[in-house]
Amino acid sequence: MSTKNLISVIMPAYNHEKYVQEAIQSVINQTYQNIELIIIDDGSKDSTWQKIQEMKALCEKRFVHVIFETQENQGTCRTLNKLISYANGDYLFLIASDDKMKPQAIELEYDFLSKHPDYALCVGDDEIIDSDSKVCYWDNERNIVYDESKAAFKTFATFLQKALNLNFNSKEFGRYDKLYQTNHILNGFLIRKSIFEKIGQYTTDAPLEDYWLMLQISKYAKMKYIDKILYSYRWHTANTIKNIENMIAITEKTRANEENILKHVDLNTILPIVKMTYLYGLRQKVKGIPFVFQIFKYIKNNKKTKIIKLFNIPIFKYTKPI
Q: Is the pLDDT of residue 241 over 90?
């Protein structure tokens, strides 16, 4: 038996008959050995469930535990909660049923998290692949190009870092005040399952579930970016992110949910930067001496906080989702 922790790879699947077997095969190909694979087909209308079942025998030979299940459509949030409830691992790796993992993804991310207990999430860069699984790039409008010399962005991380003016190799990566402006955590992350004991379950009140997750994790722990391509993110006509009006609506709803969470969170349990963001963001309308006293009282009690950051956090400035 492996002495390394059990990793639960969870996959919510929906209408990805063309891609789901590639996704499963990429989990099979992981260099990290101690893995269980849990897949729930969320009421697909195509042959996704059949494609999943075709891989079951192969998966049972490769993994220490396998769960394949189908259900009537319940949506992403409810499906993810069920997947997590089934997981026995100390760590979770979430993979979309139309994406792929690089063979060393889990091994490298686990190696970091196992040595850094103050971090709850680790993620690498995402290469971009098209509907035929061919590696491609983006121009300035995020249209696919295949000539690397004509590409404006060669990976998802290069796009995000330029768009947000954020160095992913800095300590600002995954920090709450930066995340509140917009989500910048890439696909293909490994997280500690124990973090859900603090943040609770996914909720339909926050329909942008990946953004909700990152905001909650960043309240209690740090995140690490590995500057290496560890995941293949598929860019095709069905990407949710391309529906701009819908993205704006669900982002606003997710942010409204977050503001409600901040009103009820125990400020003594969250990281200092989150507490500072809370003071600045939710009380910025308070004018005059009382507000100033609140701020300097906080700074006095948290000497590691840099004053300049207080006035540079555009926490409630609306930013269109990326």
A: no
Count of structural domains within the chain: 2
Confidence (pTM): 0.85
Tokens for 96? 């979309």
Closest CA to 217 of 247, 185, 251: 185
Task: Check residues 34 and 243 and name the one with the higher pLDDT.
Answer: 34
Please identify, among 40, 70, 101, the residue that sits at the C-terminal boundary of a domain. 101
Domain with residue 74: its CATH number is 3.90.550.10
Quickly list DSSP for 14-44. -S-TTTHHHHHHHHHT-S---EEEEEEEE--
User: Is the separation of the CB atoms in 150 and 139 below 8 Å?
Assistant: yes
CA distance 99 to 126: 10
The residue segments making up the domain with residue 14 are: 1-101
Among the three residues 101, 125, 150, which one is the final residue of a domain in this structure?
101
> Binning pLDDT at 50, 70 and 90, where does residue 303 land?
very low
- Domain membership of residue 49 (yes or no) is yes
